[in-house]
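Build the 3D complex.
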Amino acid sequence: MIKCLSTTPFNDQKPGTSGLRKKVRVFQQPHYAENFIQSVFDSLEGFEGKTLVLGGDGRFLNRDVIQIALKMAAANGFGRVLVGKGGILSTPAASHLIRSSGAFGGLVLSASHNPGGPDEDFGIKYNVSNGGPAPEKVTDTIHARTLSIDSYRILEAADVDIDTPGMSRLGEMTVEIVDPVAGYADLMESLFDFGAIRAMIAEGFTLSFDAMSAVTGPYAVEILEKRLGAPSGTVRNATPLPDFGHHHPDPNLVHARELYDRMMGEDAPDFGAASDGDGDRNLIIGRHSYVTPSDSLAVLAANAHLAPGYALGLKGIARSMPTSGAADRVAQRLGIPLYETPTGWKFFGNLLDAGMATICGEESAGTGSDHVREKDGIWAVLLWLNIMAVRRQGVAQILAEHWAAYGRNYYARHDYEGIADDKADALMAALRDKLAALPGTANSGGKIKSADDFAYTDPTDRSVSRNQGVRILFEDGSRMVFRLSGTGTEGATLRVYIERYVGSDGDLGMATADALEPLVRAAQEVADISGFTGMERPSVIT
Ligand code: VG1
Ligand code: CO
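Done.
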Protein backbone atom coordinates (compact mmCIF):
# COMPACT_ATOMS: atom_id res chain seq x y z
CA MET A 1 0.00 0.00 0.00
CA ILE A 2 1.31 3.46 -0.88
CA LYS A 3 1.29 5.87 2.04
CA CYS A 4 1.47 9.62 1.79
CA LEU A 5 2.98 10.87 5.05
CA SER A 6 2.97 14.47 6.12
CA THR A 7 6.26 16.07 7.07
CA THR A 8 7.84 19.44 7.76
CA PRO A 9 10.93 20.88 6.05
CA PHE A 10 14.48 20.73 7.42
CA ASN A 11 16.35 23.95 6.75
CA ASP A 12 19.78 22.31 6.36
CA GLN A 13 19.38 20.18 3.22
CA LYS A 14 21.34 22.29 0.75
CA PRO A 15 23.52 20.00 -1.40
CA GLY A 16 27.23 20.95 -1.27
CA THR A 17 30.12 20.34 -3.67
CA SER A 18 28.98 16.75 -4.05
CA GLY A 19 25.51 15.99 -2.70
CA LEU A 20 24.03 16.29 0.78
CA ARG A 21 26.45 15.28 3.52
CA LYS A 22 25.63 15.23 7.22
CA LYS A 23 26.45 13.38 10.38
CA VAL A 24 24.73 9.98 10.58
CA ARG A 25 22.75 11.19 13.59
CA VAL A 26 21.34 14.04 11.49
CA PHE A 27 20.20 11.51 8.87
CA GLN A 28 18.70 9.39 11.64
CA GLN A 29 16.14 12.06 12.54
CA PRO A 30 12.65 10.89 11.59
CA HIS A 31 11.79 11.84 7.96
CA TYR A 32 15.23 13.36 7.28
CA ALA A 33 16.37 11.02 4.49
CA GLU A 34 12.79 10.68 3.25
CA ASN A 35 12.39 14.45 2.92
CA PHE A 36 15.54 14.75 0.85
CA ILE A 37 14.76 11.81 -1.41
CA GLN A 38 11.21 13.06 -2.01
CA SER A 39 12.61 16.53 -2.76
CA VAL A 40 14.87 14.94 -5.38
CA PHE A 41 11.95 13.09 -6.97
CA ASP A 42 9.75 16.21 -6.84
CA SER A 43 12.43 18.12 -8.74
CA LEU A 44 12.47 15.64 -11.64
CA GLU A 45 10.05 15.30 -14.51
CA GLY A 46 9.14 12.31 -16.62
CA PHE A 47 10.60 9.43 -14.63
CA GLU A 48 7.37 7.41 -14.47
CA GLY A 49 8.07 3.84 -15.49
CA LYS A 50 11.77 4.59 -15.96
CA THR A 51 14.88 3.11 -14.33
CA LEU A 52 16.72 4.37 -11.25
CA VAL A 53 20.20 3.15 -10.24
CA LEU A 54 20.80 2.78 -6.51
CA GLY A 55 23.88 1.93 -4.48
CA GLY A 56 26.53 3.30 -2.20
CA ASP A 57 29.93 2.86 -0.66
CA GLY A 58 28.75 0.48 2.06
CA ARG A 59 29.10 2.89 4.95
CA PHE A 60 26.92 2.86 8.05
CA LEU A 61 23.23 3.58 7.10
CA ASN A 62 23.81 2.49 3.49
CA ARG A 63 21.56 -0.56 3.75
CA ASP A 64 18.83 1.28 5.68
CA VAL A 65 18.61 4.18 3.24
CA ILE A 66 18.60 1.75 0.30
CA GLN A 67 15.42 0.19 1.70
CA ILE A 68 13.84 3.62 2.18
CA ALA A 69 14.82 4.75 -1.32
CA LEU A 70 13.47 1.52 -2.87
CA LYS A 71 10.08 1.90 -1.21
CA MET A 72 9.92 5.59 -2.09
CA ALA A 73 10.91 4.93 -5.71
CA ALA A 74 8.11 2.36 -5.94
CA ALA A 75 5.60 4.78 -4.41
CA ASN A 76 6.65 7.59 -6.72
CA GLY A 77 6.25 5.59 -9.91
CA PHE A 78 9.69 4.44 -11.06
CA GLY A 79 9.40 1.34 -13.23
CA ARG A 80 12.61 -0.37 -12.22
CA VAL A 81 15.46 0.07 -9.77
CA LEU A 82 18.89 -1.46 -10.33
CA VAL A 83 20.66 -2.03 -7.01
CA GLY A 84 24.28 -3.09 -6.63
CA LYS A 85 24.42 -6.42 -4.75
CA GLY A 86 24.75 -5.78 -1.03
CA GLY A 87 23.95 -2.13 -1.71
CA ILE A 88 27.44 -1.64 -3.14
CA LEU A 89 28.24 0.57 -6.11
CA SER A 90 31.32 2.73 -6.40
CA THR A 91 30.59 6.23 -7.68
CA PRO A 92 32.21 5.59 -11.10
CA ALA A 93 30.50 2.19 -11.36
CA ALA A 94 27.14 3.85 -10.58
CA SER A 95 27.85 6.41 -13.29
CA HIS A 96 28.62 3.63 -15.77
CA LEU A 97 25.52 1.64 -14.80
CA ILE A 98 23.28 4.69 -15.29
CA ARG A 99 24.73 5.16 -18.77
CA SER A 100 24.84 1.52 -19.84
CA SER A 101 21.29 0.77 -18.64
CA GLY A 102 19.78 3.95 -20.07
CA ALA A 103 18.54 4.85 -16.59
CA PHE A 104 16.73 8.10 -15.85
CA GLY A 105 19.17 8.78 -13.02
CA GLY A 106 20.66 7.37 -9.87
CA LEU A 107 21.01 7.84 -6.14
CA VAL A 108 24.55 7.37 -4.86
CA LEU A 109 24.74 6.94 -1.11
CA SER A 110 28.10 8.15 0.07
CA ALA A 111 29.97 10.83 1.92
CA SER A 112 32.98 9.93 -0.17
CA HIS A 113 36.28 10.67 1.57
CA ASN A 114 34.56 11.56 4.86
CA PRO A 115 34.76 8.97 7.67
CA GLY A 116 31.86 6.57 8.29
CA GLY A 117 30.19 4.90 11.28
CA PRO A 118 27.44 5.79 13.75
CA ASP A 119 29.19 9.01 14.82
CA GLU A 120 30.52 9.95 11.43
CA ASP A 121 29.17 10.96 8.03
CA PHE A 122 26.57 9.86 5.51
CA GLY A 123 25.50 11.39 2.23
CA ILE A 124 23.07 11.22 -0.69
CA LYS A 125 23.83 12.42 -4.18
CA TYR A 126 21.57 12.46 -7.22
CA ASN A 127 23.06 11.76 -10.65
CA VAL A 128 21.29 12.55 -13.91
CA SER A 129 20.88 10.45 -17.06
CA ASN A 130 24.36 11.18 -18.44
CA GLY A 131 25.69 9.42 -15.33
CA GLY A 132 27.07 12.59 -13.78
CA PRO A 133 26.24 14.61 -10.67
CA ALA A 134 23.16 16.78 -11.01
CA PRO A 135 24.15 20.22 -12.31
CA GLU A 136 23.65 23.29 -10.16
CA LYS A 137 20.28 24.20 -11.57
CA VAL A 138 18.96 20.78 -10.49
CA THR A 139 20.58 20.89 -7.03
CA ASP A 140 19.15 24.41 -6.57
CA THR A 141 15.67 23.11 -7.41
CA ILE A 142 16.12 20.20 -4.99
CA HIS A 143 17.21 22.58 -2.25
CA ALA A 144 14.23 24.88 -2.84
CA ARG A 145 11.93 21.87 -2.61
CA THR A 146 13.45 20.74 0.72
CA LEU A 147 12.34 24.08 2.16
CA SER A 148 8.68 23.70 1.20
CA ILE A 149 8.07 19.94 1.29
CA ASP A 150 5.00 18.86 3.27
CA SER A 151 4.62 15.17 2.45
CA TYR A 152 6.39 12.15 0.99
CA ARG A 153 5.25 8.92 -0.62
CA ILE A 154 6.45 5.51 0.50
CA LEU A 155 5.30 1.96 -0.11
CA GLU A 156 4.41 -0.09 2.92
CA ALA A 157 6.22 -3.35 2.26
CA ALA A 158 8.74 -5.80 3.68
CA ASP A 159 12.42 -5.06 3.10
CA VAL A 160 13.88 -6.22 -0.20
CA ASP A 161 16.63 -8.87 -0.17
CA ILE A 162 19.51 -6.91 -1.68
CA ASP A 163 22.09 -9.68 -1.30
CA THR A 164 20.73 -12.17 -3.81
CA PRO A 165 21.19 -11.35 -7.51
CA GLY A 166 18.02 -11.43 -9.57
CA MET A 167 14.66 -9.77 -10.08
CA SER A 168 11.74 -9.20 -7.77
CA ARG A 169 8.66 -6.97 -7.51
CA LEU A 170 8.09 -4.16 -5.09
CA GLY A 171 4.52 -2.98 -5.60
CA GLU A 172 4.29 -2.20 -9.32
CA MET A 173 8.06 -1.73 -9.62
CA THR A 174 10.78 -4.20 -10.63
CA VAL A 175 13.85 -4.47 -8.44
CA GLU A 176 16.97 -5.96 -10.00
CA ILE A 177 19.97 -6.81 -7.85
CA VAL A 178 23.03 -6.61 -10.10
CA ASP A 179 26.72 -7.46 -9.90
CA PRO A 180 28.34 -4.12 -8.98
CA VAL A 181 31.75 -5.04 -10.40
CA ALA A 182 31.51 -7.01 -13.68
CA GLY A 183 30.19 -4.30 -16.03
CA TYR A 184 32.65 -1.76 -14.69
CA ALA A 185 35.59 -4.19 -14.99
CA ASP A 186 34.58 -4.90 -18.61
CA LEU A 187 34.56 -1.17 -19.32
CA MET A 188 38.10 -0.88 -17.94
CA GLU A 189 39.18 -3.81 -20.07
CA SER A 190 37.82 -2.06 -23.15
CA LEU A 191 39.88 1.09 -22.48
CA PHE A 192 43.25 -0.32 -21.45
CA ASP A 193 45.71 -2.86 -22.77
CA PHE A 194 45.20 -5.52 -20.11
CA GLY A 195 47.53 -7.86 -22.02
CA ALA A 196 50.44 -5.45 -21.76
CA ILE A 197 49.79 -4.74 -18.07
CA ARG A 198 49.43 -8.44 -17.33
CA ALA A 199 52.75 -9.13 -19.08
CA MET A 200 54.47 -6.37 -17.10
CA ILE A 201 53.21 -7.86 -13.83
CA ALA A 202 54.17 -11.38 -14.92
CA GLU A 203 57.69 -10.11 -15.59
CA GLY A 204 58.01 -9.03 -11.97
CA PHE A 205 56.55 -5.53 -11.74
CA THR A 206 55.19 -5.18 -8.20
CA LEU A 207 52.28 -3.11 -6.94
CA SER A 208 50.23 -2.41 -3.84
CA PHE A 209 46.69 -1.02 -3.73
CA ASP A 210 45.08 0.21 -0.51
CA ALA A 211 41.28 0.09 -0.72
CA MET A 212 41.08 1.66 2.75
CA SER A 213 38.28 -0.76 3.79
CA ALA A 214 36.05 1.16 1.42
CA VAL A 215 34.19 0.45 -1.79
CA THR A 216 37.07 -0.17 -4.23
CA GLY A 217 38.12 -3.44 -2.57
CA PRO A 218 35.94 -5.75 -4.69
CA TYR A 219 36.71 -3.79 -7.86
CA ALA A 220 40.46 -3.81 -7.31
CA VAL A 221 40.55 -7.51 -6.42
CA GLU A 222 38.63 -8.40 -9.59
CA ILE A 223 40.69 -6.15 -11.87
CA LEU A 224 44.20 -6.15 -10.41
CA GLU A 225 44.37 -9.63 -8.93
CA LYS A 226 41.96 -11.68 -11.04
CA ARG A 227 42.11 -10.07 -14.48
CA LEU A 228 45.66 -8.69 -14.41
CA GLY A 229 47.27 -11.48 -12.44
CA ALA A 230 48.75 -9.51 -9.54
CA PRO A 231 49.35 -11.82 -6.56
CA SER A 232 46.59 -12.09 -4.01
CA GLY A 233 47.23 -9.62 -1.21
CA THR A 234 48.14 -6.90 -3.71
CA VAL A 235 44.88 -5.24 -2.65
CA ARG A 236 44.95 -4.38 1.03
CA ASN A 237 42.00 -3.52 3.26
CA ALA A 238 39.88 -5.04 0.50
CA THR A 239 36.60 -5.58 2.35
CA PRO A 240 34.23 -2.59 2.52
CA LEU A 241 33.36 -1.98 6.18
CA PRO A 242 30.54 0.25 7.52
CA ASP A 243 33.08 2.31 9.48
CA PHE A 244 36.05 1.75 7.13
CA GLY A 245 37.80 0.00 10.01
CA HIS A 246 37.88 3.34 11.86
CA HIS A 247 40.01 4.76 9.09
CA HIS A 248 39.36 7.98 7.28
CA PRO A 249 39.01 6.80 3.65
CA ASP A 250 40.77 9.80 2.17
CA PRO A 251 43.75 8.81 0.04
CA ASN A 252 46.18 11.52 1.04
CA LEU A 253 49.54 11.53 2.77
CA VAL A 254 47.95 11.73 6.21
CA HIS A 255 45.26 9.07 5.94
CA ALA A 256 47.07 6.74 3.54
CA ARG A 257 50.22 6.97 5.63
CA GLU A 258 50.73 3.21 5.75
CA LEU A 259 50.90 3.01 1.96
CA TYR A 260 53.14 6.05 1.82
CA ASP A 261 55.58 4.56 4.32
CA ARG A 262 55.62 1.29 2.40
CA MET A 263 56.35 3.13 -0.84
CA MET A 264 59.20 5.06 0.75
CA GLY A 265 60.68 1.96 2.42
CA GLU A 266 63.65 -0.18 1.37
CA ASP A 267 61.57 -2.96 -0.17
CA ALA A 268 58.94 -0.71 -1.70
CA PRO A 269 57.00 -2.13 -4.63
CA ASP A 270 57.26 -0.43 -8.02
CA PHE A 271 53.85 1.19 -7.79
CA GLY A 272 51.40 2.07 -5.04
CA ALA A 273 47.88 3.46 -5.17
CA ALA A 274 44.81 4.04 -3.03
CA SER A 275 41.25 5.22 -3.49
CA ASP A 276 38.63 6.86 -1.28
CA GLY A 277 35.33 5.87 0.34
CA ASP A 278 33.30 5.79 -2.87
CA GLY A 279 36.08 4.96 -5.33
CA ASP A 280 36.31 8.15 -7.33
CA ARG A 281 39.64 9.47 -6.01
CA ASN A 282 43.14 8.14 -6.57
CA LEU A 283 46.49 8.43 -4.87
CA ILE A 284 49.49 7.48 -6.98
CA ILE A 285 52.89 6.83 -5.44
CA GLY A 286 55.80 5.33 -7.30
CA ARG A 287 58.68 3.61 -5.57
CA HIS A 288 60.15 6.47 -3.50
CA SER A 289 58.22 8.94 -5.60
CA TYR A 290 54.98 10.71 -4.65
CA VAL A 291 52.90 12.18 -7.46
CA THR A 292 50.82 15.26 -6.74
CA PRO A 293 47.34 14.88 -8.19
CA SER A 294 47.80 17.94 -10.41
CA ASP A 295 50.97 16.41 -11.89
CA SER A 296 49.19 13.10 -12.28
CA LEU A 297 46.50 14.79 -14.40
CA ALA A 298 49.18 16.38 -16.58
CA VAL A 299 51.15 13.14 -17.02
CA LEU A 300 48.02 11.14 -17.81
CA ALA A 301 46.88 13.72 -20.37
CA ALA A 302 50.31 13.83 -22.03
CA ASN A 303 50.49 10.03 -22.31
CA ALA A 304 46.85 8.96 -22.67
CA HIS A 305 47.31 8.16 -26.37
CA LEU A 306 49.42 5.17 -25.27
CA ALA A 307 46.25 3.43 -24.03
CA PRO A 308 43.90 1.91 -26.63
CA GLY A 309 40.85 3.85 -25.40
CA TYR A 310 42.58 7.17 -26.08
CA ALA A 311 44.72 6.24 -29.09
CA LEU A 312 42.97 8.84 -31.22
CA GLY A 313 44.07 11.63 -28.88
CA LEU A 314 42.22 14.03 -26.62
CA LYS A 315 39.63 16.62 -27.60
CA GLY A 316 40.41 18.86 -24.67
CA ILE A 317 41.43 18.88 -21.02
CA ALA A 318 39.41 20.36 -18.17
CA ARG A 319 40.62 21.10 -14.65
CA SER A 320 39.09 22.78 -11.64
CA MET A 321 40.36 26.29 -10.99
CA PRO A 322 42.46 25.45 -7.87
CA THR A 323 44.18 22.58 -9.73
CA SER A 324 47.71 23.50 -10.84
CA GLY A 325 48.45 24.74 -14.33
CA ALA A 326 50.58 21.67 -15.19
CA ALA A 327 47.83 20.31 -17.43
CA ASP A 328 47.56 23.67 -19.23
CA ARG A 329 51.07 23.22 -20.61
CA VAL A 330 50.19 19.77 -21.90
CA ALA A 331 47.05 21.11 -23.58
CA GLN A 332 49.07 23.88 -25.15
CA ARG A 333 51.63 21.48 -26.58
CA LEU A 334 48.92 19.13 -27.83
CA GLY A 335 47.14 22.09 -29.41
CA ILE A 336 43.86 21.32 -27.66
CA PRO A 337 41.66 23.53 -25.45
CA LEU A 338 42.00 23.72 -21.67
CA TYR A 339 38.89 24.53 -19.61
CA GLU A 340 39.07 25.93 -16.09
CA THR A 341 35.95 25.13 -14.05
CA PRO A 342 34.80 25.60 -10.45
CA THR A 343 35.54 22.87 -7.91
CA GLY A 344 33.37 19.76 -8.15
CA TRP A 345 32.84 17.15 -10.85
CA LYS A 346 29.37 18.45 -11.74
CA PHE A 347 31.00 21.23 -13.76
CA PHE A 348 32.75 18.78 -16.12
CA GLY A 349 29.57 17.00 -17.26
CA ASN A 350 28.53 19.48 -19.96
CA LEU A 351 32.05 19.66 -21.42
CA LEU A 352 32.25 15.87 -21.61
CA ASP A 353 28.75 15.55 -23.08
CA ALA A 354 29.56 18.16 -25.72
CA GLY A 355 32.76 16.35 -26.71
CA MET A 356 34.82 19.40 -25.77
CA ALA A 357 36.99 17.64 -23.18
CA THR A 358 38.18 14.03 -22.91
CA ILE A 359 40.17 14.10 -19.66
CA CYS A 360 39.32 16.06 -16.51
CA GLY A 361 40.94 16.43 -13.13
CA GLU A 362 41.04 18.09 -9.76
CA GLU A 363 43.87 18.74 -7.34
CA SER A 364 41.92 16.74 -4.74
CA ALA A 365 43.03 13.44 -6.26
CA GLY A 366 40.24 13.18 -8.78
CA THR A 367 40.92 12.28 -12.40
CA GLY A 368 38.67 10.82 -15.04
CA SER A 369 37.58 10.87 -18.64
CA ASP A 370 34.56 10.72 -20.90
CA HIS A 371 34.17 6.96 -20.22
CA VAL A 372 31.81 7.89 -17.36
CA ARG A 373 30.67 11.20 -15.86
CA GLU A 374 32.42 10.93 -12.50
CA LYS A 375 36.01 10.94 -11.46
CA ASP A 376 37.37 7.43 -11.31
CA GLY A 377 40.10 6.15 -8.98
CA ILE A 378 40.73 2.74 -10.52
CA TRP A 379 40.66 4.22 -14.03
CA ALA A 380 43.56 6.51 -13.08
CA VAL A 381 45.51 3.60 -11.63
CA LEU A 382 44.99 1.55 -14.80
CA LEU A 383 45.97 4.42 -17.09
CA TRP A 384 49.22 4.84 -15.13
CA LEU A 385 49.87 1.08 -15.38
CA ASN A 386 49.13 1.10 -19.11
CA ILE A 387 51.51 4.01 -19.66
CA MET A 388 54.25 2.31 -17.64
CA ALA A 389 53.74 -0.95 -19.52
CA VAL A 390 54.19 0.84 -22.86
CA ARG A 391 57.02 3.19 -21.84
CA ARG A 392 58.74 0.55 -19.74
CA GLN A 393 59.61 3.20 -17.19
CA GLY A 394 58.84 3.71 -13.53
CA VAL A 395 56.89 6.57 -11.98
CA ALA A 396 59.98 8.56 -10.97
CA GLN A 397 61.46 8.48 -14.45
CA ILE A 398 58.18 9.40 -16.13
CA LEU A 399 57.76 12.35 -13.74
CA ALA A 400 61.35 13.54 -14.22
CA GLU A 401 60.99 13.45 -18.00
CA HIS A 402 57.68 15.27 -17.75
CA TRP A 403 59.17 18.11 -15.73
CA ALA A 404 62.18 18.28 -18.02
CA ALA A 405 59.84 18.76 -20.95
CA TYR A 406 57.22 21.07 -19.42
CA GLY A 407 58.73 22.58 -16.27
CA ARG A 408 57.35 21.87 -12.81
CA ASN A 409 54.37 23.33 -11.00
CA TYR A 410 55.31 23.05 -7.33
CA TYR A 411 52.00 22.70 -5.55
CA ALA A 412 50.44 22.11 -2.14
CA ARG A 413 47.07 22.51 -0.49
CA HIS A 414 46.86 23.60 3.13
CA ASP A 415 43.59 22.77 4.89
CA TYR A 416 42.54 24.47 8.11
CA GLU A 417 39.79 22.26 9.52
CA GLY A 418 37.14 22.76 12.19
CA ILE A 419 37.00 26.57 12.05
CA ALA A 420 33.89 28.19 13.53
CA ASP A 421 31.60 29.11 10.60
CA ASP A 422 31.41 32.80 11.47
CA LYS A 423 35.20 33.10 11.68
CA ALA A 424 35.70 31.38 8.33
CA ASP A 425 33.06 33.62 6.73
CA ALA A 426 34.71 36.70 8.25
CA LEU A 427 38.11 35.68 6.86
CA MET A 428 36.70 35.22 3.36
CA ALA A 429 34.72 38.48 3.57
CA ALA A 430 37.81 40.43 4.64
CA LEU A 431 39.77 38.87 1.80
CA ARG A 432 37.09 39.73 -0.74
CA ASP A 433 37.02 43.33 0.50
CA LYS A 434 40.75 43.60 -0.14
CA LEU A 435 40.82 42.20 -3.65
CA ALA A 436 40.51 45.42 -5.61
CA ALA A 437 43.43 47.00 -3.75
CA LEU A 438 45.87 44.07 -4.05
CA PRO A 439 47.17 44.33 -7.64
CA GLY A 440 50.47 46.21 -7.71
CA THR A 441 51.24 45.58 -4.04
CA ALA A 442 53.98 43.21 -2.89
CA ASN A 443 54.41 40.71 -0.07
CA SER A 444 56.63 37.71 0.73
CA GLY A 445 55.34 35.97 -2.39
CA GLY A 446 56.37 38.80 -4.73
CA LYS A 447 54.43 41.42 -6.63
CA ILE A 448 50.71 40.78 -7.11
CA LYS A 449 49.51 40.98 -10.68
CA SER A 450 45.79 40.39 -10.26
CA ALA A 451 43.24 39.26 -7.70
CA ASP A 452 39.63 38.20 -8.16
CA ASP A 453 36.81 35.95 -7.05
CA PHE A 454 36.50 33.20 -9.64
CA ALA A 455 33.30 33.14 -11.71
CA TYR A 456 32.59 30.55 -14.41
CA THR A 457 30.40 30.72 -17.45
CA ASP A 458 29.63 27.26 -18.79
CA PRO A 459 30.49 27.41 -22.51
CA THR A 460 27.70 25.00 -23.43
CA ASP A 461 24.67 26.53 -21.71
CA ARG A 462 26.05 29.92 -20.59
CA SER A 463 25.03 29.26 -16.97
CA VAL A 464 27.09 31.33 -14.54
CA SER A 465 28.53 30.25 -11.16
CA ARG A 466 29.98 33.02 -9.01
CA ASN A 467 32.08 33.21 -5.82
CA GLN A 468 33.98 30.02 -6.60
CA GLY A 469 37.19 30.97 -4.79
CA VAL A 470 39.49 33.93 -4.31
CA ARG A 471 42.61 33.79 -6.46
CA ILE A 472 45.70 35.93 -6.20
CA LEU A 473 48.17 35.84 -9.07
CA PHE A 474 51.77 37.03 -8.83
CA GLU A 475 53.84 38.57 -11.60
CA ASP A 476 56.08 35.48 -11.84
CA GLY A 477 53.09 33.18 -12.43
CA SER A 478 52.85 31.95 -8.84
CA ARG A 479 49.35 31.71 -7.41
CA MET A 480 47.33 31.37 -4.21
CA VAL A 481 43.68 30.37 -4.03
CA PHE A 482 41.40 30.57 -1.00
CA ARG A 483 38.03 28.87 -0.69
CA LEU A 484 35.83 27.19 1.87
CA SER A 485 35.09 23.48 1.56
CA GLY A 486 31.60 22.42 0.53
CA THR A 487 31.82 18.80 1.69
CA GLY A 488 32.43 19.00 5.45
CA THR A 489 29.88 18.23 8.12
CA GLU A 490 31.34 20.02 11.12
CA GLY A 491 32.44 23.66 11.19
CA ALA A 492 34.22 25.14 8.19
CA THR A 493 37.38 24.09 6.39
CA LEU A 494 39.53 26.73 4.74
CA ARG A 495 41.48 25.45 1.76
CA VAL A 496 44.55 27.40 0.68
CA TYR A 497 46.03 26.27 -2.64
CA ILE A 498 49.59 27.35 -3.35
CA GLU A 499 51.43 27.03 -6.64
CA ARG A 500 54.75 28.10 -8.10
CA TYR A 501 55.95 27.36 -11.59
CA VAL A 502 59.61 26.67 -12.40
CA GLY A 503 60.54 26.33 -16.07
CA SER A 504 62.37 23.32 -17.45
CA ASP A 505 65.69 25.16 -17.20
CA GLY A 506 65.11 25.96 -13.48
CA ASP A 507 65.56 23.92 -10.30
CA LEU A 508 63.24 20.94 -10.71
CA GLY A 509 64.49 19.02 -7.69
CA MET A 510 63.46 21.16 -4.72
CA ALA A 511 61.41 19.86 -1.82
CA THR A 512 57.88 21.18 -2.32
CA ALA A 513 57.78 22.80 1.12
CA ASP A 514 60.99 24.72 0.38
CA ALA A 515 59.85 25.82 -3.04
CA LEU A 516 56.57 27.16 -1.64
CA GLU A 517 57.79 28.64 1.63
CA PRO A 518 57.62 32.34 0.59
CA LEU A 519 54.11 31.83 -0.76
CA VAL A 520 52.97 30.13 2.43
CA ARG A 521 54.10 33.22 4.32
CA ALA A 522 52.34 35.42 1.78
CA ALA A 523 49.06 33.56 2.30
CA GLN A 524 49.33 34.26 6.01
CA GLU A 525 50.04 37.95 5.34
CA VAL A 526 47.18 38.44 2.89
CA ALA A 527 44.48 36.50 4.71
CA ASP A 528 45.60 36.73 8.36
CA ILE A 529 44.71 33.08 8.80
CA SER A 530 46.04 32.82 12.34
CA GLY A 531 44.32 36.05 13.35
CA PHE A 532 40.91 34.85 12.19
CA THR A 533 41.20 31.18 13.12
CA GLY A 534 43.70 31.06 15.96
CA MET A 535 45.49 28.30 14.00
CA GLU A 536 49.21 28.69 13.48
CA ARG A 537 49.48 25.86 10.99
CA PRO A 538 47.20 23.82 8.74
CA SER A 539 45.52 20.60 9.93
CA VAL A 540 46.43 18.76 6.74
CA ILE A 541 48.87 19.44 3.92
CA THR A 542 48.36 17.55 0.69
C1 VG1 B 1 36.25 18.44 -2.18
C2 VG1 B 1 37.32 18.65 -3.23
C3 VG1 B 1 36.71 18.69 -4.62
C4 VG1 B 1 35.91 17.39 -4.85
C5 VG1 B 1 34.89 17.20 -3.73
C6 VG1 B 1 34.16 15.89 -3.84
O1 VG1 B 1 35.34 19.51 -2.21
O2 VG1 B 1 38.03 19.84 -2.97
O3 VG1 B 1 37.72 18.84 -5.57
O4 VG1 B 1 35.24 17.44 -6.08
O5 VG1 B 1 35.54 17.23 -2.47
O6 VG1 B 1 35.05 14.81 -3.82
P1 VG1 B 1 35.39 20.72 -1.15
O7 VG1 B 1 34.20 21.58 -1.47
O8 VG1 B 1 35.35 20.10 0.19
O9 VG1 B 1 36.69 21.40 -1.40
V1 VG1 B 1 34.53 13.34 -3.22
O10 VG1 B 1 35.66 12.21 -3.60
O11 VG1 B 1 34.44 13.72 -1.58
O12 VG1 B 1 33.04 13.13 -3.86
CO1 CO C 1 34.92 10.37 -3.43
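The mean pLDDT is 97.
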